[in-house]
Amino acid sequence: MMPVYFPALTYLSLYGSNIVAIPESISRFPRLIELEIENCMQLREIQGLPQSIRRVTARNCLSLDPQSSNRLLNLIGDILGLLPNMVCECSRRRDPVSSRKLLHPDISSSYWLSSYEDFEFEEDDYDCDFNDDDYEIRLPGTEIPYWFNHQSIGDSIYFWVGRELSELAVCIVFGLEGQIGPFNCQVYLSINGCERKLKSLAFQAMMSDHRLVFCKPYVELQRLLKCFNLGDRNHAMVVCKISTLHSTPTISPIIKRCGVHVVCCPHKFSNLGFDTTVSDGFNLGSCSTAHNLLNDDLDLYPPSKKMRRS
Questions:
Q1: Would the N or C end of the chain have less CB density within 10 A of its end CB?
Q2: Computed from CA positions of residues 265, 271, 276, 282, in that sequence, does the dihedral angle turn out positive or negative?
Q3: How far apart are CA 172 and CA 170, in angstroms?
Q4: CA-based diameter of the chain, in Å?
Q5: In the structure, how many helices (H) and strands (E) does the chain have?
Q6: Residue 217 falls within a domain, yes or no?
Q7: What domain range includes position 56?
Q8: Where does the record place the C-JID domain (predicted)?
Q9: Quick one: average pLDDT of 160-180?
Q10: What are phi and psi of 203, to 5 degrees?
Q11: From CA 77, how far away is CA 261, in angstroms rounded?
């Protein structure tokens, strides 16, 4: 049996360090939930991740090689195959000064605390629930993985769903017209005209186009869906909105593209006329049941599945 390291560690920050590679040995951190590697300009390789990981923030890791980027994106894809069978865990809320956190020596506790103060949530905002249980990846790049069965140019995308929805993941591509300052991104889910906030995030300065990929655990998704009155066939839409984080003028990014991976219960659609195939192009009106599309070699974009550019 391989030894485990830091068995109580749930959060690890290497913010701004000169690290070149995340070693495979990090997979032996049995309870690591969140890895922060922002502004690690020399980071090129991620050799492994623990099974417990939920969030990786790789903002401004511009040297990251394609295989490592694919490994991060595959993290969400792998999770999607497991979500319907997962048991809801009573996850503990993270304490910013918890002894279970390990920060890079250059990061003071005051910096960590101030980063949480940038979040602006409403008191009655159930939908966000501080996003504590979401699976989330932030990293440079512009490609949406091909297993996102709905893709659209711009900040919104629509699709059809049935009465039961087992998987929902969202990918957003932020485009820059220059180096930007801090900003907020709000993601809303609308079904049959009823809208709920799906996620609320704060971003710091970026130096290139970036991607956000997230999905909700199965139990949390079902909890959210109870807010909607679902019929056999429902018109759904995901809308993304950006606002600046502070009152001082800053350059805001644009949302270039967005994608949704959605899976409904297959037996519900035999007579509803839903297309259950994955298109090579921008599929905007179906609910796909094809979700085991990840390749063993971590190639998210094989030639036969390349998305057409507009």
A1: N
A2: negative
A3: 7
A4: 59
A5: 3, 15
A6: yes
A7: 11-305
A8: 139-263
A9: 87
A10: -120, 145
A11: 10
**Mean of per-residue pLDDT scores for the chain:** 73
Q: What is the DSSP code (8-state) at residue 88? A: P
Coil, helix or strand at residue 124: coil
- On whether residue 5 sits in a domain, the answer given is no
280 has a pLDDT exceeding 70: no
The candidate with the shortest Cα–Cα distance to 139, out of 199, 56, 248, is 56
Write b or e for each residue in 105-127: b if 16 or more Cβ atoms lie within 10 A of its Cβ, otherwise e: eebeeeebeeeeeeeeeeeeeeb
CA–CA dist 144, 74 (Å, integer): 12
Residue 249 CA from chain centroid, whole number: 27
Say whether 87 sits in a helix, a strand or coil. coil
Report the alpha-carbon distance of residue 169 to residue 199 in Å, rounded: 11
Residue 310 within any structural domain of the chain: no
Report how far apart the first and last C-alpha atoms of the chain are (Å, whole number): 51
Domain count, the chain: 1
Give the pair of three-digit tokens for residue 139.
Answer: 């990293």
251, amino acid identity: I
Cβ(132)–Cβ(34) below 8 Å: no
Backbone angles phi, psi at 204, to 5 degrees: -95, -175
Q: 6 in a domain, yes or no?
A: no
Query: What are residue 211's phi and psi, to 5 degrees?
Result: -120, 145
pTM recorded for the entire structure: 0.71
